[in-house]
Amino acid sequence: MTPLPDLMLEPLVRAGLLEDLGCGGDITTDALAAPGQVLHTALVARQPGVVAGLSLARLAFTLLDSSVRFTVDRPDGSPVAPGDRIARVSGPAAAILGGERVALNFLSHLCGIATATAGIVQAISGTRARVCCTRKTLPGLRAIQKYAVRAGGGANHRFRLDDAILIKDNHIALAGGDVARALAAARARAGHLVSIELEVDTLDQLAQALGAGGADVFLLDNMTLPQLREAVAMVDGRALTDASGGITPDTAADIARTGVDILSVGWLTHTVRALDIGLDYEEG
């Protein structure tokens, strides 16, 4: 994978370091480390998973001391097993122990997202569907969380409100409950490169939308498997179909086999479990 540029990542890592170091710095390491003491350590997986977030981990150390050597063994997107060394980190003790928690917090969280995404991707292999994340991200972390989804083999839905038009139930309410009116207003405002996606809860709404000229994408919200199959048949390739709601590793395959193009999964970014990764001491 092509990593995100440091220019995007440095503000996040700096904020994490400032939060952790406080006003006095790492007083534990300051008390115990000998002057100029060097450590040789490794980031090691404790669980099976997929790697994501190494650039943030590197910055957590090198922003404290540019002499830290960070050598990647398994780059972002790589599968790991328990005990696998992900990267080696060598340098001044103050920088390595001062940056350890920030590095692990970012890396464990993003590896968790990549690992969960890879699980859904594997579950739906052999179907036409793609796994997408949503805007249900932690404030300030959207770019890196969506990057982790890509590291796990998934794709990204829109990043911001200005990426595309997505007409949801509250927007239809704004248009007086009239799907055709909502679509017409969206088309009048959209530029030629702006896609329009419409959320529908029922097949009747979908029929109304198709009769009103349709959309580029239909978000099929919390539909049953028979409803999804019928919706795909109704759309008949004239637009993309995007299933949302109730998608888990156990249900994803059945949902994908209905013929939908996209599975939108919000929990990949807002409630995913971190991957257990440790920083282990190694002999120099």
UniProtKB/TrEMBL annotation:
<comment type="similarity">
    <text>Belongs to the NadC/ModD family.</text>
</comment>
<keyword id="KW-0662">Pyridine nucleotide biosynthesis</keyword>
<dbReference type="InterPro" id="IPR036068">
    <property type="entry name" value="Nicotinate_pribotase-like_C"/>
</dbReference>
<comment type="pathway">
    <text>Cofactor biosynthesis; NAD(+) biosynthesis; nicotinate D-ribonucleotide from quinolinate: step 1/1.</text>
</comment>
<dbReference type="InterPro" id="IPR022412">
    <property type="entry name" value="Quinolinate_PRibosylTrfase_N"/>
</dbReference>
<dbReference type="GO" id="GO:0005737">
    <property type="term" value="C:cytoplasm"/>
</dbReference>
<protein>
    <recommendedName>
        <fullName>Probable nicotinate-nucleotide pyrophosphorylase [carboxylating]</fullName>
        <ecNumber>2.4.2.19</ecNumber>
    </recommendedName>
</protein>
<dbReference type="InterPro" id="IPR004393">
    <property type="entry name" value="NadC"/>
</dbReference>
<dbReference type="InterPro" id="IPR027277">
    <property type="entry name" value="NadC/ModD"/>
</dbReference>
<keyword id="KW-0328">Glycosyltransferase</keyword>
<dbReference type="GO" id="GO:0034213">
    <property type="term" value="P:quinolinate catabolic process"/>
</dbReference>
<dbReference type="GO" id="GO:0009435">
    <property type="term" value="P:NAD+ biosynthetic process"/>
</dbReference>
<dbReference type="Pfam" id="PF02749">
    <property type="entry name" value="QRPTase_N"/>
</dbReference>
<feature type="domain" description="Quinolinate phosphoribosyl transferase C-terminal">
    <location>
        <begin position="113"/>
        <end position="280"/>
    </location>
</feature>
<feature type="domain" description="Quinolinate phosphoribosyl transferase N-terminal">
    <location>
        <begin position="26"/>
        <end position="111"/>
    </location>
</feature>
<dbReference type="InterPro" id="IPR013785">
    <property type="entry name" value="Aldolase_TIM"/>
</dbReference>
<dbReference type="InterPro" id="IPR002638">
    <property type="entry name" value="Quinolinate_PRibosylTrfase_C"/>
</dbReference>
<dbReference type="InterPro" id="IPR037128">
    <property type="entry name" value="Quinolinate_PRibosylTase_N_sf"/>
</dbReference>
<comment type="function">
    <text>Involved in the catabolism of quinolinic acid (QA).</text>
</comment>
<keyword id="KW-0808">Transferase</keyword>
<dbReference type="GO" id="GO:0004514">
    <property type="term" value="F:nicotinate-nucleotide diphosphorylase (carboxylating) activity"/>
</dbReference>
<dbReference type="Pfam" id="PF01729">
    <property type="entry name" value="QRPTase_C"/>
</dbReference>
<comment type="subunit">
    <text>Hexamer formed by 3 homodimers.</text>
</comment>
